[in-house]
């Protein structure tokens, strides 16, 4: 296989993953966007967390909310729990790395808020702990996972939402996660601002 064929394989696999995700996730993404708008309109905020590429996705989502997506609008309340290096390192050092998000959820989260929990495997221990903390605080959870949904799929409550990308490869899951985040941002703006 030459290098061009290898690159083409990535495009084809990504297209197939996105098509598969669209077929199973579009209705749930619409519900997730409605819940996010309800949260924001009820003086709530969205706390987002994840590790590695999922931390970048949490930051990306918060940036699109606080700044803007594609249309000018007032900022919307969203915070990435993966960005405060002092809090992350203090909690990781003084307690345990599994608690870096849950401590922040307990400190910042309230009943009207939502947790956007991102884990490609569905098994990230610190994201799982954040979900437990969100439930303790009476918060709803929207989880972005992949593969079979992992442990996160098993611990979500009846009012939580699972957006599971049903493919095995982490790179493809991450590519679909960023598409889901953009679809959520667009749907939120559409509900708040109207549009074509």
From TrEMBL:
Co-factor requirement: Zn(2+)
UniProt cofactor note: Binds 1 zinc ion per subunit.
GO BP terms in the entry: carbohydrate metabolic process; D-glycero-D-manno-heptose 7-phosphate biosynthetic process
Pathway in which the depicted protein is active: Carbohydrate biosynthesis; D-glycero-D-manno-heptose 7-phosphate biosynthesis; D-glycero-alpha-D-manno-heptose 7-phosphate and D-glycero-beta-D-manno-heptose 7-phosphate from sedoheptulose 7-phosphate: step 1/1
Protein location: Cytoplasm
Binding site for Zn(2+): 60, 64, 174, 182
Top-level taxon in the UniProt lineage: Bacteria
Domain SIS: residue ranges: 36-196
GO molecular function: carbohydrate derivative binding; D-sedoheptulose 7-phosphate isomerase activity; zinc ion binding
E.C. code: 5.3.1.28
Catalytic activity: 2 D-sedoheptulose 7-phosphate = D-glycero-alpha-D-manno-heptose 7-phosphate + D-glycero-beta-D-manno-heptose 7-phosphate
Enzyme class: isomerase
Swiss-Prot/TrEMBL keywords: Carbohydrate metabolism, Cytoplasm, Isomerase, Metal-binding, Zinc
Cellular component aspect of the GO annotation: cytoplasm
Binding site for substrate: 51-53, 64, 93-94, 119-121, 124, 174
Pfam families, A to Z: SIS_2
Protein purpose: Catalyzes the isomerization of sedoheptulose 7-phosphate in D-glycero-D-manno-heptose 7-phosphate.
Quaternary context: Homotetramer.
Additional detail: The reaction produces a racemic mixture of D-glycero-alpha-D-manno-heptose 7-phosphate and D-glycero-beta-D-manno-heptose 7-phosphate.
Similarity comment text for this entry: Belongs to the SIS family. GmhA subfamily.
Protein name per UniProt: Phosphoheptose isomerase
Species name: Crenobacter luteus
Name of encoding gene: gmhA
């Amino acid at each position: 296989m030459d290098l061009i064929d290898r690159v083409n394989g990535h495009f084809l696999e990504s297209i197939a993953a996105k098509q598969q995700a669209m077929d199973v996730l579009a209705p749930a993404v619409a519900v997730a966007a409605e819940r996010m708008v309800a949260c924001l309109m009820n003086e709530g905020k969205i706390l987002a967390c994840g590790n590695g590429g999922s931390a970048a996705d949490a930051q990306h989502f918060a940036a699109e909310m606080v700044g803007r997506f594609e249309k000018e609008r007032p900022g919307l309340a969203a915070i990435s729990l993966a960005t405060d290096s002092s809090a992350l390192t203090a909690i990781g050092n003084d307690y345990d790395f599994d608690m870096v998000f849950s401590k922040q959820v307990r400190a910042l989260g309230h009943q009207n808020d939502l947790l956007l929990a991102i884990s490609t495997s569905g098994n990230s221990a610190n994201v799982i702990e954040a979900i437990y903390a969100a439930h303790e605080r009476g918060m709803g959870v929207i989880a972005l996972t992949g593969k079979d949904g992992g442990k996160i799929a098993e611990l979500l409550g009846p009012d939580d939402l699972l957006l599971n990308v049903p493919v095995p490869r982490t790179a493809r899951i991450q590519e679909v996660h960023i598409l889901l985040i953009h679809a959520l941002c667009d749907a939120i703006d559409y509900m708040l601002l109207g549009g074509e």
